[in-house]
Write a structure and sequence with these properties.
heterodimer; A: alpha/beta; Rossmann fold; 2 domains; six-stranded mixed sheet; four-stranded antiparallel sheet; B: mainly alpha; MetI-like fold; 81% helix; 0% strand; globular
Chain lengths: 264, 302
């Protein structure tokens, strides 16, 4: 049987005039349905480019992405993205931001009241119903990101793409949002691809961690399977030997084998 | 020397906090009793701070003007002479005594009507062309240099051409309004469209919005602050241009009134007309700014 999601020999070359830079080199890995995969690497290693290729916001130079055996050619709600800076539309309320996505994706199959209920249901999932009539500028950064997640979940994506979703948040908010995402993944069983540069976050949330070498010519350095049982509890993991050894391996990869080199 | 003093102050106030809380509860009761009085007083004082200073300045300027123009040999009339000569224009904006002897309110309305038509076309065409230029690189490369040259041409320089083309003063004046106010609308709209953040475009791509939805749901709201900046500059220019255009084309407008008053040496009337023009221009500007504030709420806050 074909894998659920396959990133197949993806290369990305940016060329300007005669000079060309290969950002990604021969990236190949597969994701199973319901799997939570993190991409980790130093900044500039092309992990965002890879996510954009899966979203089809960027086209690969060679290779391609297959989901359920079908080649991905253009952006679409089956690969919903939670952007790093939330990307909510500031002139719409929290409800309207999610509703826009719901209307677009389910406009033909669901009635008006069903779409309203589905919008509210997704806001409920991220505990944002209380702020449904507020505008993005009136809620905190963590709340905006919750709405961004609700909007993406509401599209019922085949693969949920998270582009450093917690990057701009303070540590406490980040931890709470990680717990929310973990609980949602447990409940809904989404297939998730997340970009991060936070080792603890990667180990806490992922089933597998794809570690990328430094760019240019970034490739997959190693793939680590995180064998920790779910549901995972943040506090219990702190002393869990499995957690510590995974963490150790990612840290070693990032800081010994592929230390970040300042632009030479 | 100041630092340690400040520090002890802060540390002293922290343990005292619960005590002040208890005090505050007791204090809040008497404040509630007089319900309407203070609120009205506050509103009045806010109104006073907005109105009294400009009022004082106006009186001072009038006094200064009176002093300067009352001296022998003064070429311009003092305020008292304007009041005695042009009182009918000041107190009655809407009288009708004959075909050319009407209140300034009527004349302003005629001018405003021309502005409304010319500016309305400018707003529609300006936003449409601006969107095109903002969206399409080739349209921008082709049209932007032309627009940058055309926009520097004085409104009145267009008048002979439009008179030749339309062979009538009314459409010519409207065309001059249009051609004056359209450039800032085009250019600002184009900048607004070009500045739509990539994030919003990505959202639109993921949601697969079609071009029509993209235009109404992303482009227009996102560019609205820019568009309204253009519209606001445009209305100001339109009001500037109509006075000049009417001076040359004649008819009933406020611009022609000034020219007519000058030719028949009714200097005080001109001062009254200037006041009308200034106040109407101010109101127009506020009007567009007010609409902008309502339409773009939320957009500029991010």
């Amino acid at each position: 049987m074909a894998p659920y999601c396959k990133i197949d020999h993806v290369d990305k070359v940016y060329s300007r005039g005669s000079a060309s830079t290969r950002v990604l080199k021969d990236i190949t890995f597969e994701m199973e349905k319901g799997e939570y995969v993190s991409l980790i690497g130093h900044s500039g290693c092309g992990k965002s480019t890879l996510l954009n290729i899966v979203a089809a916001l960027t086209q690969p130079s060679t290779g391609g992405v297959m989901i359920e055996g079908k080649l991905v050619t253009e952006p679409g709600p089956d690969r919903a993205v939670v952007f790093q800076n939330h990307s909510l539309l500031p002139w719409l309320t929290v409800y309207e931001n999610v509703r826009l996505a719901v209307d677009k994706v389910f406009g033909k199959v669901k009635s008006k009241s069903e779409r309203d209920a589905w919008t509210l249901h997704n806001l409920e999932l991220v505990q944002m119903t209380h702020a449904r009539d507020k505008r993005p500028s009136e809620v905190s950064g963590g709340m905006k990101q919750r709405v961004g997640i609700a909007r993406a979940l509401a599209m019922e994506p085949k693969v949920l793409l998270l582009d450093e979703p917690f990057g701009a948040l303070d540590a406490l908010t980040r931890a709470r949002l990680q717990d929310t995402v973990m609980a949602l993944h447990q409940k809904l069983g989404n297939t998730v691809m997340m970009i991060t540069h936070d080792v603890d976050e990667a180990v806490l949330l992922s089933d597998r961690i794809v570690m990328m070498t430094n760019g240019p010519d970034a490739e997959i350095g190693d793939i680590l399977t995180v064998p920790i049982e779910r549901p995972r509890k943040r506090l219990e993991l702190v002393s869990d030997p499995e957690f510590l050894s995974c963490r150790q391996r990612v840290l070693e990869f990032l800081y010994e084998r592929h230390r970040f080199v300042e632009a030479a | 020397m100041n630092m340690p003093v400040a520090k002890t102050d802060v540390s002293a106030s922290i343990p005292a906090a619960p005590a002040t809380k208890a005090n505050a509860k007791v204090l809040s009761l008497p404040v509630r009793q007089p319900a309407l009085g203070p609120r009205v007083a506050a509103a009045l004082s806010r109104l006073a701070t907005a109105i009294v200073p400009p009022l004082v300045m106006i009186v001072l300027l009038l006094v200064l003007w009176q002093i300067l123009c009352s001296r022998p040999g003064a070429t311009l009339p003092p305020p008292t002479k304007i009041w005695s000569d042009a009182r009918d224009l000041i107190v009655g904006p809407f009288f009708v005594n004959g075909p050319q002897d009407i209140g300034l309110g009527w004349r302003v309305l005629v001018s405003l009507q021309r502005v409304a038509i010319g500016y309305g076309f400018a707003a529609l065409i300006g936003v449409a062309l601006g969107t095109l230029i903002g969206q399409s690189v080739w349209a921008m490369r082709g049209l932007d240099p032309i627009f940058q040259v055309l926009r520097t041409i004085s409104p009145l320089a267009w008048l002979p051409i439009s008179l030749a083309a339309f062979r009538d003063s009314q459409p010519s004046a409207i065309f001059v309004i249009f051609i004056t106010s359209v450039w800032p609308i085009i250019i600002n709209t184009a900048v607004g469209i070009r500045n739509i953040p990539q994030d919003y475009r990505n959202v639109a791509a993921v949601l697969r919005l079609n071009p029509y939805e993209f235009f109404w749901k992303i482009m227009i709201p996102s560019a609205a602050p820019y568009i309204f900046t253009g519209l606001r500059i445009g209305i100001g220019l339109a009001w500037l241009a109509i006075v000049a255009a009417e001076m040359l084309t004649g008819g009933v407008g406020i611009g022609f009134f000034i020219w007519d008053a000058w030719n028949s040496s009714r200097l005080p009337d001109i001062f009254i007309a200037l006041a009308y023009i200034g106040i109407v221009g101010f109101v127009l500007d506020r009007l567009v700014a007010g609409i902008a504030a309502v339409v773009t709420r939320g957009t500029s806050a991010s």
